[in-house]
TrEMBL record:
Catalyzes two reactions in de novo purine nucleotide biosynthesis. Catalyzes the breakdown of 5-aminoimidazole- (N-succinylocarboxamide) ribotide (SAICAR or 2-[5-amino-1-(5-phospho-beta-D-ribosyl)imidazole-4-carboxamido]succinate) to 5-aminoimidazole-4-carboxamide ribotide (AICAR or 5-amino-1-(5-phospho-beta-D-ribosyl)imidazole-4-carboxamide) and fumarate, and of adenylosuccinate (ADS or N(6)-(1,2-dicarboxyethyl)-AMP) to adenosine monophosphate (AMP) and fumarate. It comes from the Bacteria. PROSITE patterns: FUMARATE_LYASES (PS00163). GO terms for biological process: IMP biosynthetic process. This is Adenylosuccinate lyase. Its EC number is 4.3.2.2.
Amino acid sequence: MTTLPPQPLSPLDGRYRSAVGTLGEHLSEAGLNRARVHVEVEWLIAQTDRGFFGTSPLSAGQQAALRRVVTEFGQPDIDELASLEATTRHDVKAIEYYVRRRLTDLGLDHLAELTHFACTSEDINNLSYAITVRDAVQQVWLPKYRAVIDTIVGLAREHRDAAMLSRTHGQPATPSTMGKELAVFVHRLERIAKQIEATEYLGKFSGATGTFSAHVVAAPDVSWPDVSREFVESLGLTWNPLTTQIESHDWQAELYSRVSHANRVLHNLATDIWTYISLGIFRQIPVAGATGSSTMPHKVNPIRFENAEANLELSSALLDSLAATLVTSRLQRDLTDSSAQRNIGVGFGHSMLALDNIQRGLGEIDLDLDVLAADLDGNWEVLGEAIQTVIRAEVAAGRSSIADPYALLKELTRGRRIGASDLAEFVSGLEIGDDAKQRLLALTPGTYTGIASDLVDRLG
């Protein structure tokens, strides 16, 4: 048997790359290294701007040239860093040597010793992870998540008046509208979106154990906490003043828990839509040339929603693990987080793939109003709730002396199929006011939806 050429181990980098590849711009080894170079370069510029150790501020041209090292970072740089790390056996040290080489290229050798000055590796790493995760969430994941919400909003508004039989515990229950049921998911997902959008991306820049020890020895007259705060904030992050060697990762645990929560709400949506398809309430629109089953030609399988379920479960499993792992570090530092954080992109990748499948799946279904109508017409017993509630109101108002209305309707409807004529006969014989009686006689399962349609307006 021949040996295969190198292959992607993860389906995210193989079969599904087209759906999730944009995350690689940020949550990949190359994306992390570019961010590390960005932090090192900005720290060099910040030191010269302050005139540390007799340096002069760099000219605008010199600063621009240094920043182009970041903005033009590409495959040759990725390869160079890989070669350096093969020697250093340390990823951040390879970054330092790479930046020193660029200083030489630009005639800025005199700044070489300010590269990585007073930094522990985690000073660079924590800021780089915060930058890459922030950009991945804000520029890639959140826009896709919001696009799914917008799709559901459109369906909720389109179907706001589509009366449907509810199924609490899987049994016929008080009717709703498809629009209102979809609006529930929108409301849930929107709340989580706002929480994720409010995420603080924290960063530390305070040395080997968070004490600024080397900084103070090198320059005792500098207010290093102020320098640290200003530098972290210049990167668009929130400063964490109290840490060990590492930034404590609490913001990451919070973010990943929220994304995992979003995954689970989306999983609920996927299983509900799958069930509506199974009941015939949603028809799947065949895609030209697609095969539903390898042996049953008639089938159109709900694969978008099944694929989404699996990937949401994988994403949440990994993000939950990260949220649990990252909040613990033995004493002032261990490397558990270093290995764990390399899988952040995998967690978001499975979520992105699920979002893609849900959005595509929602675009390939059509509501069958005839099925909804037949379903409602076959379950007139759901009006039992309405009748017993009206009787109670009439008793309270002194217009009826019926004892135990609930038991009366339970005897009539529980476990039985009754039709329009059965209920009409029953209501006609009730001891209640004429107005109440006429309201009940006019009621049908299709009109017993309360203000479900109006509730869709609460989406804004």
